[in-house]
Amino acid sequence: MTEGADPAPRLVRPYTLTAGRTDSRVELPWEAPVAAATPPQPPDWPGADVRAQIVALCARRPSVAEIAAHLGLPLGVARVLVGDLVMQGYVTVHDTLADATTADERRELIGRTLRGLKAL
After folding, report:
1. Which is nearest to 84 in space by CA: 54, 114, 110, 46?
2. Is the preceding peptide bond at 40 cis, omega within 30 degrees of 0?
3. Does the N-terminal or the C-terminal CB of the chain have fewer CB atoms within 10 Å?
4. More confident residue, 104 or 21
5. Residue 94 host element (H or E)
6. DSSP assignment string, 58-74
C-alpha cells in the first residue's frame, strides 16, 4: 500500500462488531481518555481482533474519537466496543477534565480532540 492510499475495505460490517447495538452500556463521552487496565488482563483474542487493537491503542490513553479514527470505525461503533471493554475490565475511562486540571492539560485535550476529529 502506498502512502496516503485508502486502507483495504473492511470485510466485517460495523453493526456485526456490536451485534447491532448502537449505545454503550457506560457513560462514554467521545473526548474521554481511555487507558488499558492495570494490571492488564490477558485477552484471549486473535491479534487482528478489533478488541485487541483497541486495548493496544489504550497504552497511549487515546480518546474514544481517536480510537475510532485510528481503526477506521464509525464513532458510534467505537463507543459501543470501548464500553464493552470497560464492562469486561480491559480498559478504564478517565474523566475528561477535573477542577484541578491545568491549562496545559486542557490544551493537550483540545489538541488531541481536534486531531481525532480531523482523522475521522
Report:
1. 54
2. no
3. N
4. 104
5. none
6. GGG--BHHHHHHHHT--
